[in-house]
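Side project, low priority. Logging it here so it doesn't get lost.
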Amino acid sequence: MKCWRREKDKDKARKCFLENRSMFLEQLIADCNGISNPIRMFSSDQISEATNQFDPMCSLQHISSYFTWYKGIIEGRSYVIKRFIDPVVGEEERAYSDIALSARIAKEVVTAITYLHTAFSRIILHRDIKATNVFLDKNWKASLTDFSSAVTLPEGKSWIQGIVLGTMLLDYVKDLRERGEPVEFGGDSKDMRPGQMNMFLDLALRCCEVRNEDRPKMILVAKEIKLIEQASL
């Protein structure tokens, strides 16, 4: 039943994507009066020449750990060019793809979230849990950072109304809940055993359930990830 529902949701999302993309392209072409292709592609040589080999003098004021903006002129038109800082995410040595290490990192992050949910008289919600807010030291030990969006729930309450910040759940526009800490992470599953893959997938799907009461609390998520970690040893 769950597999059928997931396939149905995928088909619906694919249909919406195609419809919205076609509408967007039609509007772009209309704005250009059909004279030019609104979506252009340029060669690396053209981009390199436009930025004078990515000369710092062509860079724009922007603070980021992942990319730099450059200004340049190609074929008589001004463009802003985004260059990712080496190593590009995904191109560095994938030492972290080891399943045991990945499970340990996930466990440490979820343990930190569980601590926020249970260690104080009032529950603390981080509200912006994503890969860029998790720091790894030289030993790949994870630390959860950036509590600028965190809120505390009133004592005795398991949810409050709030505005959308950080990573959003389906029902996040309505309220903030103890079970509703959204987590945004990617992962490399190529080294997983089938059993471990199924365990991770089952846990992830339960965390994405639409109804709040169907999603597990973080303390249970932490316990399950610990079991997955032990299964990888």
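Brief comment: The helical segments are 2-31, 44-50, 99-118, 194-207, 218-231.
Revisit when time allows.
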